[in-house]
Structure formats: C-alpha cells, structure tokens
Design brief:
Layout: H1 2-39, H2 41-62, H3 65-75, H4 80-111, H5 113-116, H6 119-125, H7 127-134, H8 137-142, H9 147-167, H10 176-199, H11 209-243, H12 246-280, H13 283-306, H14 308-316, H15 321-331, H16 334-349, H17 354-377, H18 381-406, H19 413-419
Length: about 425
C-alpha cells in the first residue's frame, strides 16, 4: 500500500508540474513572436538584458532553498512543528536577502550610466524577485503537493499574458511587459503564502539563531550550485549585451528561451523525482524514467534541428542566417542538459552525494565563464552560443564520472532497499 501511495503521489505531482511546464512552453511560443514583431529585436533584447541582470539578484534571494528546503520539508513533512520552524527560518533569511539584493540593484543603477539610463525598467523588472521571495514553491515540493504550484503559476501567467496582448500595442509600451510579469509573480506569491497559512495551518514562528544558521549553512552549497547552473543563462545574456549590443541579445534570447522551454522536460521530471527518490531511493524505477525521458527528448529534438529555419520563420517571421546557426549550436546541448539534470538531484543528491552533484555545476560554470569571456573578447557570437554546449556537456561528464565512481548505477534492488 505504501508503494502504491508513493506512485500515486508521484504521478499526481508529475502531471501537475508537467501541466505547468506545458504552459511555460506554450506561453513563450505565443508571446515571443508577438513581442519580437511589436517591439522589434533590439527592444526585445533590451528587455532580456535587464531581466538577466535582475535574475542574478533572484539567485541570491533564492539562495538554493528550492533544493535544501525542499529536502528538509520532505523529510519532516509529518512533523508540523518542525515544518513550521523550517518555513519560518527560510522565509526570514530570504527577506534579509531580498533587502540586500535591492540595495545592490540601487547601487548598480546609481553607479553605471548604462544601467541608470533605464533605471525604471530595472526597478519594474525587480518585481519578479519580490514574487520569488513570496512564492515558497519549495514548500509545496517538499510536501509533494505540487498541484498548487501549477494552479497558482498557470493562473497568474495566463491572466497577465493576456494583458500583454491587450495592452502592448507599440514599441513605447515595452515597460508594460516586465510590469505585468512582476504583478503576476507578486500576486501569485501572496496567494501561495495565504494558502500555506490556511491549508497547512502554518504560522510564522521567530526562528532561533541556531535555526537560521543551520538553514543558511545547509543551503550554501546549493546556492553556489544555482549560481553555476542558473547564473550561466544570465551571464551569457549579460555579456552579449555588453559586447554585442541589444540586437544580438534579442537573437540569442529568442533561441535561449525556446531552448530552456525544451529543457524543462528534464527539469519537470527532476523536480518530481527528487523528493520521491530522497525517501525511497528506488533505483530501478529511476532508470526506466531516465531512459524514457531521453528517448522522448531525442524524438522531439531531431525534427526541430532539421527544420529549424522553417520553425523560426513560422514563429517569428524572421529569416536570418545568424539566428538559424545560433539555434543549431544551442539546441545541440539539449540531450546533455536533460541527462545532466536527471543525474544530479534525483540521483546523486538523493543518495547523499550532494557535493558531487553541486561541484559538477560549479566546475562546469568556471569552464563556461572562461569560454564565453574569451568568445566575447574575440567578438564571435557563435562561440558564445557554443558555451551552453560546453557547460552542459561538462556537467554531464562530471556527474557521470561521480555516479560510476560511487557505483550507484550498479546498486541492486536489495541494496537500494537497505539504504532506505
């Protein structure tokens, strides 16, 4: 009965997150072509450059709690008092980080003219960070009640995406895009907190210094991992904006958004499996999912690569050789990226090899930063695009090495059960 209940919960969570990721893939396919045509590639690039800068602050506020807090909540979810203490400590730490991040943003705007001339754009975009602070998705993931993540995210994104089509009618309306995104994130976050307080009867309890220290230190390694993984996306856009200008940012961002939407296939499964694998360590089930997802990804990837010019023309009404080449280069990293995501937290971290999972991304990020910096200095946009392939391939190889070094792939069913 226990296994049956586990599978039932796993399937429910998978379809909840899958629905969310489907929406995350469909909405960009609707808004991306519209925004590129209405705003133009250059203004679209400016929006993505500002978002990339602000998302570095978002990583700071998240501080890896989407992984560490998810694990802590999952392990203690039947102990209400313990869950309350974890929730309170994490939210207080994130509030402090939110204040620090805003001070850093203001310092950036007042110090550098390139940012200061569009200060209102950055301040409006920063609302996404506030929404991230308010929305404790890690809590719902840890409780393995992910349908609420889907309901809130899908609802807010659909509504405010509709607003973009209604109100963004010309290039001068570009500020409305980050405004609607920020409002959706903030209102969704407010409702999520209300839901936690009401449904789970969780109330804020002032954490002790020891609890704050424990949560902070416990998430530090995850934070560096998130800088390495998520920071790579934003570093690339930031460097392109500085060295190549907003038009090239626009081209790169078009492909990158499509790429990460495709990569969400692996992210969805990874988020779903992580709390389940942390509890059960069901390696046989994991292997079936791993190879199944890679097979699906391959079937979807081949026609996208072959017919990329037609695909881009239909979506954006853009026939550009540079855009097509960037697409092929970036999407060649997809299988490595999905495989790497599935090898990390559903497998290595679930079996206790958290450092190995995190260090693989940290090392890959150093390789990535060095590669992309040189590519920008030598003004080669194709090498810049190839940096995503280098990053994902490096992370995949390092995680594969750790798995075989620890002998995880060879653990038998009986040994797996003994570990639980």
């Amino acid at each position: 009965m226990k296994i049956s209940a586990d599978y039932k919960s796993l399937i429910s969570n998978f379809f909840s997150l899958s629905a969310l990721q489907v929406v995350n893939m469909i909405l960009p396919l609707l808004t991306l072509p519209y925004l590129v045509r209405i705003l133009g590639v250059e203004t679209f690039g400016l929006l993505n450059f500002s978002l990339a800068v602000v998302m570095f602050l978002n990583i700071l506020v998240s501080f890896g709690f989407e992984l560490s807090a998810t694990r802590d909540i999952s392990v203690n979810r039947d102990q209400k008092e313990k869950v309350t203490r974890i929730f309170s400590a994490v939210m207080l730490i994130k509030l402090i980080l939110l204040i620090i991040s805003f001070v850093l943003l203001c310092a950036l705007l007042f110090t550098f003219e390139k940012f200061g001339e569009h200060y209102l754009l950055y301040l409006v975009t920063y609302g996404v960070v506030v929404g991230n602070f308010l929305f404790p998705a890690w809590f719902f993931q840890g409780m393995e009640d992910m349908k609420y993540i889907t309901f809130i995210n899908v609802g807010s994104k659909v509504i405010f995406t509709g607003f973009i089509f209604l109100f963004v009618q010309e290039r001068n309306d570009f500020l409305l895009v980050p405004l609607f995104n920020s409002l959706g994130a903030i209102l969704g976050g407010v409702y999520a907190v209300y839901l936690i307080l009401k449904k789970y009867s969780i109330s804020f309890a002032m954490p002790t210094r020891q609890e704050l220290s424990s949560q902070f230190r416990g998430s530090t390694h995850f934070f560096f991992s998130r800088i390495a993984n998520d920071g790579s996306k934003h570093y690339a856009v930031s460097m392109i904006g500085i060295f190549f200008g907003n038009t090239m940012v626009g081209y790169f961002s078009i492909v990158a958004k499509l790429f990460y939407a495709f990569m969400s296939l692996g992210g969805t499964v990874s988020q779903t499996l992580y709390p389940y694998m942390s509890r059960t360590r069901n390696l046989n089930f994991y292997k079936k999912i791993f190879f199944g997802i890679l097979s699906v990804a391959l079937v979807l990837l081949i026609p996208l690569m072959v017919f990329n010019e037609l695909f881009l023309d239909l979506l954006f009404d853009v026939q550009n050789e540079t855009l097509s080449k960037i697409f092929i280069i970036i999407f060649s990293a997809a299988l490595f990226g999905i495989a790497s995501a599935l090898l990390g937290y559903p497998l290595l971290a679930a079996f206790g090899f958290i450092k190995e999972a995190n260090n693989s991304l940290i090392v890959a990020s150093f390789v990535f930063v060095g590669f992309i910096t040189l590519a920008c200095i030598f003004q080669n946009i194709y090498f810049v695009s190839a940096s995503l392939l280098i990053f994902n391939l490096t992370a995949f190889l390092l995680r594969t090495k750790s798995i075989y070094k620890q002998g995880l792939w060879k653990i038998s069913s009986k040994a797996t059960k003994a570990l639980t």
